[in-house]
Every structure is written in structure tokens, then in C-alpha cells.
Specification:
The protein is of the alpha/beta class. About 45% of the residues lie in helices and about 25% in strands. The chain contains 20 helices and 19 strands. Strands 12-13-14-15-16-17-18-19 form an 8-stranded mixed beta barrel, surrounded by 6 helices. Strands 6, 7, 8, 9, 10 and 11 form a 6-stranded mixed β-sheet that branches. α5 runs antiparallel to α6 and α11 runs parallel beside α13. It is flat and about 95 Å long. About 0% of the residues have low confidence.
Amino acid sequence: MAGDAALVVAADGKICSVQQAPQLADDALAALPGAALDTVWSENVAAKIRENVRGCIRSRQFQYTEIDCDGRQFEFTFVAQGRDRALVLIRDIADKKLALEQIEKLAYFDEETLLPNRKFLHKELSGIIGNLRLAEGRAALITFDVEKIMSHGMSYNPRRQKRILKEIAKRFKNALRGANEQRPFDEQRYSTAARIDFRRFAVILPTINSGDDAEAVACRLIESLQQPIALDNHEIRVTVRAGIALFPQDGQNADALLENATAALESARSSSSPYKFHSGTASLPALQRKDIELELRAALDREELALNYLPIMDASSGRPVAIEVLLRWPQSLSANRSIAKVVAMAEHTGLMLPIGEWILRNSCEQLRRWQLAGHSKLRLAINLSVQEMGRRNLVDFIATTIAESEVDAAMIDFEITEQMLQCDALNNYSICNAIQTLGARLTIDDFGTGACAFSHLARSYVDTIKIDNSFIEHCMDSASDRAAIGAIVAMARVLGTTVIAEGVESREQSELLCALGCDMQQGYFFCRPGTADDIATVLGEPGEGGC
């Protein structure tokens, strides 16, 4: 059925009567009463109409939906009539949709270059940031300025300028994979190129691993844009500068990122470099960044990294039941730099993946040695990084490493943050479920500082919650912190989840946390981080407790 219409439809999907259908001939109208919906529409469309009719009758409230019927969009409104039927108002909105698309094109696209404009860029960037904030992802915004347009022996006029700008826009699209393609199920993979001012352009890179990715794209685009442009038997050359801002370190929203990318562009215009980063780790001079990367790689190759261990104690017995693994950086890396900067560089260069592999392999080997020494019930807690959680073969690597180390996966706890759990929730908890299928357990680290929904905890089968030490630090003199700890413990009891309090520094804190119901505790009150030999004295002889 095409065009507008008004039908009365019963709950069983039969057409009771036709109130209005001016596009149908009299014989067609006469045949409709008593006919099933799927004699008029396809089975899929008929099923959607039946579902809405029944929902409208049940709720006694009108319902509205849009349905694609053979390539045309229709607006369906459902109004309950009596106990078992509904009035169905049908309106063809294909022309309206087309008009709206034309209006959007005028509002969001630049007429000269056919690229999206500044308004579209801001809207797109805001949406990407919203998605990446949940997933702890990274993005980059690069602004470009076509500074000089040089020609020899040719007069320069607005018509030729438009042709040059069109060629520049074409080069943006050709140099970027899938630029400006509309792919709703995979939108974060593709870049957006836009014209934001007279001679200024911008590119959104919605998923990057590090600032190096943005740097490589900026260099490739600058090289492409500065190639000679053939125009009316002449060669035109342009000079291009670029400014790079990274999410999240250079801005938490579209306005801030655009402002900082523009600031970086102005910096590039006054320097000999064709591009500049705004700030953050990536804004370090290239040689300095390369030096840290080389030191990280060398430390990994020479096995200069080391592991420390911090016991997790049973609250009732005071005996260690698990050991958390901590990475100890070599002195050459940490002596003159903050650990935060070293970690940022490890993530920036992608080296957290091989470092994570080294940690897992060596941790499992140490657990095996403790087990052979008689501590058969001792558990191991290993932190996973954001990059590791995004690794496709993470679970396969874990399974292989555990098997090679001859340890039981059931004795290993993997610690992730609330944000990482949220990210996995977007993929239906695929990684969390796969890790638990191996037999390992999951712990939410630093709980209470993120934005983890109760549903995420309920659906992901988290085994343990580790209360962030910011609540523990002031629990003796802060009623609100004590209440928060009590609420977390109560929630964990409902979910059947174990609770660990981290950062315990005094006997008074330990006793209070016991009274509040924390199952396990961890902190300097019991033991400071140490080597495997140091921890051996804390473990004691096999059989002297639970491990």
C-alpha cells in the first residue's frame, strides 16, 4: 500500500475496516476488510504493525513508529479503539525525509568543496568523544592551514581558487581510508575531513592507539597536499601547516579539542616544523619521545623489568590468601622521570602489550614456584591494562601462558577498572566472560571512583570488588566514607561478591573494616611491596594458614 491511509486493525492482525485510502481503487478497497496484514505488506512489516497494534491495545496509549516499506519511509500512528482493535494512521514521509536530508546537507556541508563544514565537524566530534569516554578510547583532531598558494606565470582569481580548494578537498578524501563514509555499525573506524574556514580544514581520527598514529596521518596529509596541483597548464604549490590535539589529554569536549588543535596550528605557523602537537606526552620533542621509547624497548629486551608483590590478607585470620603483582620499573627509566610519564609513554608507543605479556608469563612462573613450595591455595592477582583489554587474542594468550606455566587458572584473579568493565559491557562482556570461561576470576579495582552501573556488576559475574583506598584513607573520621564502604559491602553481599579493602595503614582502620564486613584487606599495615624472597617470610611455612 502506498500513500496515506487510515485502517482499523484487530489484535489478531486482521483489517476490520478502511477509514481512508484515497490512492486505492474501489475494488481494492472492498477486498481489504477481513484480510490479513501480510496480504498487504511484507511479512516483516506486517509483524511490526501487529506488534504495535497489540502494544497500543494493552497500554491504551497511542504509539508511533517509522517503518520502511519497500524502500519508502512511512509514519505509523496507533490509537486504541475498543478492547481488541486499534486505528492505524499511515502517512508517507519519504518526501519529507528527502527534504530533511537536503536541509541537513545545506546546513552541514560546504558548497565549494562538498566536504562537511565546521558545524558538522563539531557535532561529529561530540558524538565520538561521548562514545570514547565510556570505552576509555583515544582520538585525535588535526587542523590544517593552507598558508600560501603560489603560482608562476598565471593570474590568480576566485574561480581558480575554488578549483584549488576542490583539489585539496579531494586529496583529503583520497589520503584517508573511508573518510566521511556513513557506516552506522562501524562509524568509529572511519575518519572525518571537514572545511572549517576559508583555507582551513580539519580531520577527526576517531580511534588511535597513540600520538604516533596522529603524527603519521598528519605527515602523510601534508605531503599529499603539498604535491604540485596541475591547473590550466600551470603548476600550483601550496604550503600547509598542521596542529594536533589528542583526546583525552588535550581536551574533554569538542570545543576544547578544536581550540587546542588551533593553538597547536598557530604554533606550527611560527616554527620551522610543518606540524605541532598541543600538549601531553605526545608534545614532548620528538627526540625525547624516541629516547624514552628506546629505553623502554631496551629494558624489556634486557629483562631489566622486575616484579614486586603485595599480599592480600584474610580479614578474620590475618593470613595472606592472595598476592597482587606490581611492576617495578628499572632505575634508568624512573630516576629522572615520574612513573606516570613512563607509563604514559608505554601506552603511547604500544609497549604495554609486550610488557603485559612479560608480567603474565613471569607471574605465572612465580605462582608455580610458590605452589611447588607447598602454598597450594595461594591466589595471584594480576592487573590488566586498557590496551590489553582491547587486544583481540588476549584470552588465547592468557590460556596459552597459563597452560605453559602449569598453573591452575582458577587460582588467578585479573583486576580491571570500572571503565574497562563498561567498555566490555558494550561488547556484551565478551572478554570478561571468556576469561571466566578459562576458570580465572575477575576483580574490579579502585571501585567507587568510576561510573560503573549496578547492571554491569550484575551481568558480568564479577567475583571481587576492591574498594578504592580514597574511602579507606579517611574512614576513621568520615561518616560519609564509612557509609560508602558499608553500602559497597551490602551491594556485594546481594551479588555474592567478595570485598577487598586496599590501602589499609593502621590497626584501627583494619578493625573498623572488619566490623563493616570487608572480607579481605591489603595495605602497608600488613606488608609493603617486596620481591618474591621478601614475601616468602610473610607467607610463612605451608600449612600455617589458608595458603
